[in-house]
Structure formats: C-alpha cells, structure tokens
C-alpha cells in the first residue's frame, strides 16, 4: 500500500512522517531525488538522494521517475527503482508536492493520499521563519506557494491538521490502521480463516 503525504512547506509533514516511521518499523519511506543543496545535518540517501541537475535530467530522459516536478527552483522526483524495491518489503510512505501526488494517484490507483495543513497562515509563517533555513525572499515564495497548494486539499482522501504534533501523529496512524483493515487489504489473511471453517464443517 502506498501512502502519499503532501502539504505546504513548513506544515511539519517531514516531522510527522518521521514520528510515524519511528513508531512503525514495518513502514518504508520512499527517498526522493533532488537537485537542491544539502542542508546541515542531512545525509544522502536518508532525507534525499542529492544529485546534480544534469544527473536529474538524464534520469528524466531515461524514464526513471514515476513523478517529478520543479519546486522553488529545484527538481524533485520519485524514482521507479525506489518505489519498486521498497514497495515489495511493505507499505510505503511518499512525501511529495501537489503535482507529484496527482501523478502518483494516476499511476497507482490504490494509493492513499493525505494532505497536511497548518492550523492557520500565521502559524505557518512563524514556523518558516523559526526554522532558520531560508532567507526572507525564499520564505515569501514558500508562503505564496502554500496559498496555491492548499486550494487542492479536496483532491486528497484524508486531511491532517498539524496543530498538535502528537494528535497529528495519531490521525496519520488511524489512517494507516483503517486502510490496513479494509476487506480488500485483508483478503490474504481472510482466506485461511474461511478455509478453516470449511475444513471444520460438521465436526
């Protein structure tokens, strides 16, 4: 099962995903490729695969991505190899933008999508400035992009409002549990139970 997580920059989706992954080791995280510079403390292959623009463009030409987009002047993409390799080992979580989420849903019809919202615009602005990762001009661009992105919340299956992180983690976990309990997801587990009833008939 693929869980697609989206939300404006600064809404806390990376922290949210990190908390959920730490609590559910059976979940896998799809690491995206990006051309943006590596930030302090980031490690190649953990937050992102950091590549040059030329390398990224070669991957586009060779059809290596299931989705890709240019966001804030940098390229981001989800590779086919990443999804195929990690998807075989369990449920997969993707952190993508609105364009990427749309592409993933078109390609994987059973993908479950979540949109993470900040509690209010002022809080998002506060978070972007507080984290100290961008200059004021970049923050203004991120806020302008956030205004555009939140208009697409209706495209998503679930909405998580990240006002209280613990509550948001609980909501994300509830989505995962609910999807795993759907009949279609449990057909494999149901089959031997039904067979046991047939075998025990008349005893």
**Total strand segments:** 9
Give the N-to-C terminal Cα separation: 38 Å
Q: From the helix content, strand content and strand pairing, which structural class follows?
A: alpha/beta
Fourth CATH level, the homologous superfamily of the domain at 2-30 and 91-199: P-loop containing nucleotide triphosphate hydrolases
Q: Which oligomerization state do the chains in this entry correspond to?
A: single chain
Average pLDDT, rounded to a whole number, is 93
CATH uppermost class of the domain at 2-30 and 91-199 = Alpha Beta
CATH topology of the domain at 2-30 and 91-199: Rossmann fold
Q: What is the 3D form?
A: globular
Helical fraction equals 40-55%
- Give a short account of the largest sheet: 5 strands, parallel
SSE sequence, one letter per element: EHEEEHEEHEHEHHEHH
In terms of DSSP E residues, the strand content is 15-25%
The CATH architecture term of the domain at 2-30 and 91-199 is 3-Layer(aba) Sandwich
Discrete helix count = 8
Rg of Cα set: 19 Å
Spatial ordering of strands, largest sheet: 2-7-1-8-9
Low-confidence stretches: none
What can you tell me about this protein's structure?
The structure is a single chain. The protein has 203 residues and is an alpha/beta fold. The chain has a domain at 2-30 and 91-199: Rossmann fold (3-Layer(aba) Sandwich). The protein is built from eight helices and nine strands. It has helices at residues 13-23, 53-61, 80-87, 98-107, 121-130, 136-149, 165-180, 187-199; strands at residues 2-6, 28-30, 32-34, 48-50, 65-71, 74-79, 92-95, 112-117, 158-161. A five-stranded parallel beta sheet has the order 2-7-1-8-9, with helices on both faces. Strands 4-3-6-5 form a four-stranded mixed beta sheet. β5 (65-71) and β6 (74-79) form a beta hairpin. The model has no long low-confidence stretch (mean pLDDT 93).
């Amino acid at each position: 099962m693929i869980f697609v997580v989206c939300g404006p920059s600064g809404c806390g989706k990376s922290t949210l995903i990190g908390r959920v992954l730490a609590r559910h080791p059976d979940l896998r995280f799809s690491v995206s490729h990006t051309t943006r510079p590596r930030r302090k403390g980031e490690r190649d292959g953990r937050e992102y695969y950091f590549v040059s623009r030329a390398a990224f463009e070669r991957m586009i030409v060779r059809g290596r991505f299931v989705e890709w987009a240019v966001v804030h002047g940098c390229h981001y993409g989800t590779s086919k190899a990443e999804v195929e390799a990690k998807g075989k080992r369990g449920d997969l979580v993707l952190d993508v933008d609105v364009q990427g989420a749309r592409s993933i849903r078109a390609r994987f019809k059973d993908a479950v999508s979540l949109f993470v919202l900040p509690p209010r615009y002022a809080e998002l602005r506060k978070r972007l400035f507080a984290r100290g990762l961008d200059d004021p001009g970049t923050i203004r661009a991120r806020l302008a992009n956030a205004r555009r992105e939140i208009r697409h919340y209706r495209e998503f299956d679930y909405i998580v409002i990240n006002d209280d992180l613990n509550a948001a983690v609980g909501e994300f976990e509830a989505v995962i549990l609910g999807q795993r309990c759907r009949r279609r997801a449990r057909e494999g587990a149901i089959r031997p139970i039904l067979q046991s009833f047939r075998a025990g008939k008349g005893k």
